[in-house]
Amino acid sequence: MEVKTSLLDNMIGVGDMVLLEPLSEDSFLGNLKKRFDHSEIYTYIGSVVISMNPYRSLPIYTPEKVEEYRNRNFYELSPHIYALADEAYRSLRDQDKDQCILITGESGAGKTEASKLVMSYVAAVCGKGHEVNKVKEQLLQSNPVLEAFGNAKTVRNDNSSRFGKYMDIEFDFKGDPLGGVISNYLLEKSRVVKQPRGERNFHVFYQLLSGASDDTLRKLKLDRDFSKYNYLSLDSAVVSGLDDAANFRTVRNAMQIVGFMEDEVQSVLELVAAVLKLGNIEFKPESRCNGTDESRVKDKNDLKEMCELLGMEQSVLERAFSYRTVEAKMEKVSTTLNVAQAYYARDALAKNLYSRLFSWLVTRINESIQAQTKARHKVMGVLDIYGFEIFEDNSFEQFIINYCNEKLQQIFIELTLREEQEEYVREGIEWTNIEYFNNAIICDLIENNQNGILAMLDEECLRPGTVTDETFLDKLNTICADHQHFESRLNKNSKFLNDHSLPHNCFRIQHYAGKVLYRVEGFVDKNNDLLYRDLSQAMYKANHSLIKQLFPEGNPAKVNLKRPPTAGFQFRASVGTLMRNLQTKNPNYIRCIKPNDKKASHIFTDSLVRHQVRYLGLMENVRVRRAGYAFRQPYEPCLERYKMLCKRTWPHWKGPAREGVEVLMADLQIPAEEISYGRSKIFIRNPRTLFFLEEKRKQCLQDLATLIQKIYRGWKCRTHFLLMKKSQIVVAAWYRRYAQQKTYRNIKSATTVVQSYTRGWQARKLLRELKYQKRCEEAVTTIAAFWHGTQVRREYRKFFRANAGKKIYDFTIQRIIQKYFLGLKSSMPSMSPIDRKWPARPYGFLDGVHTELRKIFHHWRCKKYRDQFTEEKKAVYEEKLEASEIFKDKKALYPSSVSQPFKGDYLEISKNPKYQKLNSAVDEKVLLADVVNKINRANGKGTPRIFLLTKKNFVLADQKTGQVKASIPLPDVTSMSVSTQKDGFFALKLKEGSASAVKGDFLLSSEHLIEIITKLHRIGATAADREKLKVDISDEFLVQFKQDKVCVKFIQSSPKNGNSVSCKRKNNRLLEVSVPTSP
After folding, report:
1. What is the 3-state secondary structure (H, E, C) of 806-844?
2. Cβ proximity of 934 and 1003 under 8 Å
């Protein structure tokens, strides 16, 4: 990014109006327009900054710009608001001077944005740290809160400040912010109840209805529809480019940062809602018996909701709208209010409620942002206040606003002249009085304690009897008749015979910015600003915490019959305090100008800007600055800038800077009356002299540029020539090297070819000789070999013929066996023990070997397969093997059980809580748990029983209750009987004479018969103290039931009733079991 090194470099127009030549109003406007068209919105008048509102975003407020202007001289860079803010901050920090920045201009000129830019710059360049950042954030976040409650959309500005704000920012000795104090002036509270066409009420009403949650609105008894509230204008309720919902969230967040508690925020919103509800209260006339009119509330719903919000009785407020109590000494007189008076009382209450709420907000913000330490602080004040206002219809508000601007103009002229005089004295320059228009006479016309307009207005308001605006105007005509700046139709200065623009109910004041016509209507009422005591007392009775603070005069214990001060008196006192405060500080001025009324960019309206230039007194400001010396500059920068104009000072001056400047000016033959030498600065009287210096410098710079270009071009050509020469030598050297290398390579290549041909011929000759010698040797060897062979064959022929057959046979057999084993290796079967495949034998004589190898391989893979088994799996297979030995080819049910694993515990008796009692009754580990059917000999039907098998006993228990029915020691079991069919019947025969055999043997039926019989047989086989249990497999066997023996006979039957096995009693000695045949 290019950084300008001086105000005079690359200048568009004239950056400082003091240097404008020739100086006239047209040239002034032309310079502003030229800079505005090139997006240069800032222009200086000495140390005053003129700011044009661009109505668009410009890339001149970036962090890089902040760093560019930080700690730089005021005139060092192009005009910018940052330059003024930096100058003020550095003067406060380094010179311990309190500062104030006065921002003035009409509505829409950009005053609020200018104050934000100043505060943001100061926040960016001051110190860092947690506490410092917290203070800076609170100071910056106070703006959104005050803007929401104090700004509104007007025809001139979408975010117009409807109050004056002065903020004192307090700093410590290091320049870090400690806190601040805000003062507010004259909130336009009449806007609460009435807005001009095309304008809105204060922002907070629209933000609340647009951005609050449905729950919040329900608590506040509000609706989002703007049209339901009389105090909100509908023609401009929605503003393009203004997001009320988002702004409401910003305001809530800002209030939290500043330090508002949640209940305080809720109380503020309740009061805002109460103002909206108050506007919806309407009245109707009602005649009394004595003939007087009395007002009554039409619809009491809004009144009721408002009272609920404020926590007050509805009847108290309703009476305050209908009656007025007047107290005089010890007497009280109660009078009724007609409809017009009731509406006046309602609006007065709404205005006072909102105005006092706004003042409370300012006080509450001050409590949060004020400095905590009591030590002396450095202070920077920022004043953002209304500019001079000249409307078609000017009333009391415009009158006191313009009075404030008169006072600011007065102090501006005084402080500017004082600053000029102090600098002249400081530099040792003779001070000459400057002629200028002193507006003290206008200020005196307004604020004189005896004959001033405000004093007469207060006197008229306090006068007993009938007081109207017309009587006030008559008094002005009487008192101010001879004043040269006051005009009316009955005043000798009015020239009413030929000036018909001055109506009868108006007066005109010739302000410093021009003549302003004021309509006297409403002056008395607005100055009185009365709120009936009944309403104050009614509000004080509310149970709302904030209301009692806003209406302390309503306290019955502190009744004050003294009339409250008027609005004009309060404002005059506030302005006086403000003026005294400003006079103790070093002033810095920002004059804001609005380029057009359309709020559009790139439009410059000459007439509008000319009007603002006049009433801001900018031409007078330039003339005051130019009345003495138009330009001044320290010696060092001046010598550095213009030293090339004199041979004695160029390029380096070795003496003091002042002497160098004196030599320079003498050489340039500058007239002595045009310049003056101070202690540290040179003063130039006429801008023409400065422009003469700049023109000479420009010409000199062009000559210097030509000289620099000439020297540079010569140096560049010489450098290029030397480089070319050096390059040519290098190229020639490399070429000669290349040529010699090429010649050498050619000679070497030719030599190599000759050598290769010679060596080839010699090699071929030697090869021929060697080949011939080898053939001779091979021929001799062959002949010798044949001869020796013949000799050996003759000698051993008789031995060979005797043993040749046996050797050939052995060799053949060996090759066949080798081939057999290799073929067997490549065609081996899988490792599965059940795989029956085996390669066919190729020769019959290998039949025995082939069979033996098959057995060996099968045994080996079975061993490998068994080695993979775990102990549990081995036990399972041992049981399966034992089952095979018992039942294979004997029991038709066996094949179907082979693929079914022996699970053992089918009931999960240890896990199932149903069998917990049964499990605890068995001491040993349960090997098998299953449900079996115990066959009844009486009818052949089965009863479900739980069958538990351990190493020593088997137990039968009831399936439902888990109660043990029988516990039989295994040694008492002698044998087991089953059929050959596919049934699950089995009989457990007990030892005769044993205690278990009292009731006889057990005939049972189970789906897991194979597993039960196998486990019983296996337990008997492993027990060392008893014989192995016999398993009798037969279709007929005897079962002992008590004293009788019954024959159980198994027969095959056709499947008539399904595939289930049935048992029937034929007689006392026979049970017949029918087993369905398989299809």
Report:
1. HHHHHHHHHHHHHHHHHHHHHCCCCCCCCCCCCCCCCCH
2. yes
Evaluate whether residue 738 is within a structural domain.
yes
Block means of pLDDT (10 residues each) for the chain, 1079 residues, are 48 82 88 91 88 90 90 80 89 83 83 87 80 78 89 82 84 84 83 86 91 91 89 80 88 90 91 91 78 79 88 86 71 78 87 90 88 78 80 83 83 73 76 69 86 85 78 84 81 53 83 84 80 80 85 72 75 84 84 88 90 80 71 80 82 83 82 80 75 80 87 94 94 94 94 94 94 93 91 75 73 85 84 83 83 87 82 79 84 83 82 78 83 84 88 86 84 88 88 80 87 84 69 88 84 73 83 80
Residue numbers in the known binding site for ATP are 105-112
Instruction: Name which of 226, 193, 222, 231 is nearest 345 in CA terms.
Output: 193
Residue 575 is assigned to a structural domain of this protein: no
Residue 444's domain spans which residues?
409-521
- Same domain, residue pair 739 and 837: no
CA distances from 866 to 627, 859, 903 (A): 123, 10, 21
DSSP structural state of residue 907 = S
916 and 1014 together in one domain? yes
Output the domain CATH number for residue 443.
1.20.58.530
Cis ω on the peptide bond leading into residue 79 (within 30° of 0)? no
pTM of the model: 0.59
Buried b or exposed e, range 433-459, using 16+ CB within 10 angstroms: ebeeeebeebbebbbeeeebbbbbbbe
> Which residues are marked as active site?
107-108, 112, 157, 160-161, 387, 389
**Does one domain contain both 922 and 858?**
no
Distance CA 882, CA 897 (A): 13
d(CA 901, CA 431): 124
Report the alpha-carbon angle 673-676-679, nearest 5.
165
Long-range contacts of 1068-1075 (CB under 8 A, 24+ apart): 1068/1044, 1069/1044, 1069/1045, 1070/1046, 1071/935, 1071/937, 1071/940, 1071/1003, 1071/1039, 1071/1046, 1071/1047, 1073/979, 1073/981, 1073/983, 1073/985, 1073/1048, 1073/1049, 1075/979, 1075/981, 1075/982, 1075/983, 1075/1050, 1075/1051
For residues 39 and 115, give the distance between their C-alpha atoms in angstroms, rounded to a whole number: 20
Q: What is the tally of helices (H) and strands (E) in the chain? A: 30, 31
Exposed (0-12), middle (13-18) or buried (19+): which is 352, by Cβ within 10 Å? buried
Distance CA 772, CA 239 (A): 118
Using CB atoms within 10 A of its CB, is residue 710 exposed (0-12), middle (13-18) or buried (19+)? exposed
Q: How many domains does the chain have?
A: 4
Continuous H helices in 428-452? 440-447
**Does 992 share its domain with 945?**
yes
How many degrees, rounded to 5, is the angle at CA 743 between CA 739 and CA 746?
140
What angle do helix axes 453-462 and 440-447 make, rounded to 10 degrees?
Answer: 0
What are 286's strand-pairing partners? 294
Residue 196 to residue 633: CA distance in whole angstroms:
51
- Known binding-site positions: 105-112
Residues 428 and 505 in one domain: yes
Q: Which amino acid is at 249?
A: R
In the numeric block, the tokens 């005069």 are attached to: 553
Q: Say if 312 falls within a structural domain.
A: no
Rounded Cα–Cα distance for residues 177 and 134 (Å): 10
Which pLDDT does position 455 carry in this prediction?
A: 87
Residues 913 and 767 in one domain: no
Radius of gyration of the chain (CA): 61
* Cα separation, 649 vs 661, whole angstroms: 9
Q: How many whole angstroms separate alpha carbon 52 and alpha carbon 887?
A: 114
**From CA 119, how far away is CA 795, in angstroms rounded?**
132
Determine the Cα–Cα distance for residues 869 and 506; give it in Å rounded to an integer: 121
By the 10 Å C-beta count (0-12 exposed, 13-18 middle, 19+ buried), 765 is classed as: exposed
End-to-end CA distance of the chain: 103
